[in-house]
Design a protein that fits this description.
This protein is an alpha+beta fold. It is 39% helix and 21% strand.
């Protein structure tokens, strides 16, 4: 009977296990528990809203070369990350997103399709294999979006790029961008020389990448059906146009505005009158809208920053000097968590203003570009007839405060200008990106033009255009897409190891530098003695000179040994940490499991003895 009971129990357990497995496969499909610190495998709410709003089916083909990546484990892990993210998106799309994985093997139809779709192949290995790691998205109306190569370096922006692709493909029509500029971005005529000016490079890029509606600076109203409005140096706007801009913003339109306390590229109201241009105001603002929104922007002062100052040449033959008003904003002074600036390296700006929020403002501010702590603000009038940039450095003082050059502003505001005949909204949510400089749009701050067989090639040396394109591209998405920020990466650095290395380097660097200096001096003295010895007869050298040479040789050997020991000590703490981790993994965990098993066995034996004692009083 005991054997029958045992066999029946095992059969019931097997049936129960199979039933639970089948039920979990049916009812728990897609269930997951994300225990990562940065929530790597959890989609942001904005992405989920986009996926659930898909009306027309979207298909994404993921091209990944399995064979070419066989010896690239990091690339294969990243490809698995892309696949998992796509699968997670498909589960939330309720059938609106189809995902296909394609392996473009060499000389296959799949590889021909990858090339035809514009994917970028990267040669890898000694055999010349081509690695494809790209995405192609299509919809039902012949729309197509391509990511030629999904770089592992941009893993933190992977969710945003996929969400953006899906959003664009799910829209029935392309979005429209309105561009209003008081600067000669489209070229025009140089009235002093009579020559035709080329359009600014950034103007050509905007025209090439987006459906642009140009707006005259004297217009009284905005064109209809704009998705994003770009204002460049909006000075002397008509009151009716300002009212229409407010109506556009409250109705859900997005704004990218470039303001300036002192625009060097502004020709003034009358380009043919040099004196008029010199005395005219060359600032731009969006008052009274900024005041109503609680955004502080002053045209009376600008930011000087010795920490970001660029070197400029004043006169031919003179050395370049640092100009505190011409700044090179580096990656350390950009938001690394925002999709607009997260991958940029340097942005060059000039006579930059600043933004702050009034304490009573209902908006939120997310800084994108900001100064160093070696910055100050000076009167804008100092720029009108400035001949020596060094004078600015003499007048400024480092306040230790960071000044915001560009920022996102969002939140709910009240209408203050909207006209009755426009059916104005009394209140609404606005989305705006404001930049306190217009000069950085001009070619001389970010790009060089080169002529090559009648073709003009652009050679950018700064990321000014990338910032503008990224900002427009980001604002073209809806509120859910804008809310998708950069995510963490699956690559987790050994921060403790890095900290140990920095601490050891700081502790031992002084000793290493002293030993290197002593070694250099010893080798110099030894070289002098050996050179003298080579020119003289051996018999001429005294025993004392021979002993000095031997002493320097021995000292050189000893210093080299000490230097090697110092450099070995740099990794001593790291190696000790590695030893402790190995001990924990190899010895401690098995010991703990063994102790736990012995404790459980002791408890079972103790319980068994108690039952036996109870049965035999």
């Amino acid at each position: 009977m005991k054997n029958w009971y045992s066999t029946s129990a095992l059969i019931l357990l097997a049936i129960l296990f199979l039933a639970l497995t089948m039920l979990s496969g049916t009812f728990l499909t897609g269930a997951r528990l994300d225990l990562t610190q940065q929530r790597l495998y959890t989609l942001s709410p904005g992405t989920i809203n986009l996926l659930r709003a898909i009306d027309e089916p979207v298909t994404i083909e993921f091209f990944f070369s399995e064979g070419a990546s066989s010896e690239l484990p990091m690339v294969r892990n990243f490809a698995r990350r892309v696949q998992e993210l796509l699968d997670e998106m498909a589960r939330h799309a309720n059938g609106g997103l189809q995902v296909r994985r394609i392996d473009p093997r060499p000389f296959s139809e799949e590889e021909d399709r990858a090339v035809l779709m514009g994917l970028q192949g990267v040669p890898v290995g000694a055999g010349g294999d081509t690695l494809y790691l790209g995405l192609v998205g299509t919809n039902m109306i012949d729309g197509r979006e391509v990511l030629p190569f999904v770089s592992p370096a941009r893993e933190s922006f992977l969710e945003y790029e996929l969400a953006r692709m899906i959003y664009i493909l799910s829209q029935p029509s392309r979005p429209r961008v309105g561009l209003l500029s008081a600067l000669p971005m489209d070229g025009g005529m140089d009235f002093q020389t009579g020559r035709t000016l080329e359009p600014w490079a950034i103007y050509e890029e905007i025209q090439e990448l987006f459906e642009v509606e140009t707006i005259d600076i004297g217009a009284a109203a905005l064109p209809e059906d704009l998705d994003v409005l770009v204002l460049v140096h909006p000075r002397n706007l008509e009151p009716e146009l300002l009212s229409d801009i407010e109506r556009f913003m409250l109705a859900g339109g997005r704004l990218l505005a470039f303001l300036d306390p002192h625009a060097e590229a502004d020709p003034g109201p009358d380009p043919t009158d040099p004196m008029g241009a010199m005395t005219a105001d060359v600032y731009s603002t969006l008052e009274p809208l900024l005041e109503a929104w609680g955004i502080l922007f002053s045209v009376d002062d600008f930011v000087v920053d010795l920490g970001l100052a660029l070197q400029v040449g004043l006169q031919q033959g003179q050395p370049p000097v640092r100009h505190p008003a011409i700044l090179g904003v580096t990656a350390d002074h950009m938001s690394r968590d925002d999709v607009i600036t997260g991958e940029l390296e340097v942005i060059n700006m000039a006579s930059v203003g600043w933004f702050e929020l009034h304490e009573d403002s209902s908006l939120s501010k997310v800084p994108l570009l900001f100064s160093s702590r070696s910055a100050d603000r000076l009167d804008t009038e100092r720029l009108r007839f400035l001949s020596d940039p060094g004078l600015l450095a003499d007048e400024m003082g480092a306040t230790g405060e960071r000044h915001v050059f560009a920022a996102r502003f969002s939140g709910e505001v009240d209408a203050v200008l909207t006209r009755e005949d426009h059916n104005g909204l009394p209140r609404g949510n606005i989305q705006a990106i404001l930049v306190a400089d217009t000069d950085f749009l001009s070619d001389r701050f970010w790009v060089q033009r080169q002529r090559f067989f009648g073709t003009t090639l652009l050679d950018p040396f700064a990321n000014n255009a990338d910032f503008v394109i990224n900002a427009i591209d980001n604002l073209l998405g809806n509120a859910d897409l804008i809310s998708v920020r950069s995510r963490g990466t699956s690559l987790r650095p050994f921060t403790l190891v890095d900290e140990l290395r920095r601490s050891a380097e700081q502790r031992l660097r002084v000793t290493e530098q002293r030993l290197e200096a002593e070694l250099a001096e010893t080798e110099r003295r030894l070289g002098e003695l050996q050179e003298a010895r080579g020119d003289a007869d051996l018999a001429v050298l005294t025993a004392q000179q021979e002993a000095e040479i031997d002493r320097f040789i021995a000292q050189r050997v000893e210093l080299r040994q000490q230097l090697r020991q110092v450099r070995r000590d740099l990794d001593r703490d790291i190696e000790a940490l590695g030893t402790r981790v190995k001990a924990i993994n190899i010895a401690l965990m098995p010991i703990m499991v063994t102790l736990f098993a012995l404790w459980m066995s002791w408890r079972r034996r103790r319980a068994f003895r108690r039952r036996q004692d109870g049965m035999n009083p």
